[in-house]
Amino acid sequence: MGIQIDVVVGHPVNDEMERVLGWAEAVGEPVTVTFMWEGREEAERAVLVPAATLALWEYWAPTAYPTSSTGEDNRAVAEQPELAHPAEFGAFTLFRRRAGGRTAVAREGVVVAELLNPDEAHWLQEKAREVRQGFMDPRQKAAFEEFLARQTPPDEQ
Questions:
Q1: Distance of alpha carbon 74 from alpha carbon 67, whole angstroms
Q2: Over the stretch 56-67, which tens digit does the pLDDT of each residue have?
Q3: What is the pTM of this model?
Q4: b/e map of 102-141 (b: 16 or more CB within 10 Å)?
Q5: Which of 17, 93, 135, 145 makes a 20 to 30 Å CA pair with 115?
């Protein structure tokens, strides 16, 4: 997926987080990020997807990301304590959703990106691509039907 950045977060340093979030926004494509939170042994991987890209994927994806029946995908979310307040990193504010595990990243009150599970981000991107590739707008469809009508039948060639 696009760019990969590894970020080590021991003490959430505003400058470091702000730089990574700003970079992802400026690039305008998904960025894979690895977080090492203080007090946790396991790294947390996420994909930072710009809001416009996510909106496009969700528009074209035919269904919602399937949830795991084993509950393993939600293990990391369940282990994390509920946030009392949104986390602020410089100009950016992170809002973790209680359902689904996504985290919205806002700047000056506008959501500019979301942190998604890498599997969900990949699934959304693939489903959106599959549906979009099978879609023709009405003018394109009419032109294609006209093109096909002008072709000689295969048995007459």
A1: 9
A2: 899 888 777 776
A3: 0.67
A4: bbbbbbeeeebbbbbbeebbebbbebbeeeeeeeeeeeee
A5: 135
